[in-house]
Amino acid sequence: MVDEANIETHGMTPMNRLSDDPDWLPAMSQRVTRMVQRDRNHPSIIIWSLGNESGYGANHDALYRWLKAEDPSRPVQYEGGGADTAATDIICPMYARVDQDQPFPAVPKWSIKKWLSLPGEQRPLILCEYAHAMGNSFGGFAKYWQAFRQYPRLQGALSGTG
């Protein structure tokens, strides 16, 4: 089970820059701290999550460092950082298709194969927000499960988590 801090900033554009605003670090830190204090002894919590769809910035880096110091036994994941950040132990793309990139205007969505082929990248890949109508559901599961079995770094998918 992934425990999420529920740090989400939909509607704060461009690209949710609260994550780079130091004025927001205390509020974000309080959410992460409360989550860890409340749930650290639950045996089913195996991954901490910094949230979902809140851009990426210095606040995420600070929260990641705090979490790793507070609980080095569990990995930390954050959807918004992709492979360009050290603020996640797991690369967890949203809506990734198996072998077709999706050229969205603001942020391109890479295919699973492209994520797995990044030079020097060895972190595991776990899809988030999977199994709904964003191009990876309604009949497409066979292709995904074939990829899960084919690529060792592709660890699976989570349904609706950040």
UniProtKB/TrEMBL annotation:
Record field: catalytic activity: Hydrolysis of terminal non-reducing beta-D-galactose residues in beta-D-galactosides
The protein's name in its UniProt record: beta-galactosidase
GO molecular function, one term: beta-galactosidase activity
Pfam families: Glyco_hydro_2_C
EC number: 3.2.1.23
Gene3D superfamilies listed in its UniProt record: Glycosidases (3.20.20.80)
Domain Glycoside hydrolase family 2 catalytic: 2-157
Source species: Salmonella enterica subsp. arizonae
Region Disordered, residue ranges: 1-23
GO biological process: lactose catabolic process
One Gene Ontology cellular component: beta-galactosidase complex
Alphabetical UniProt keywords: Glycosidase, Hydrolase
Entry annotated with the keyword Transit peptide: no
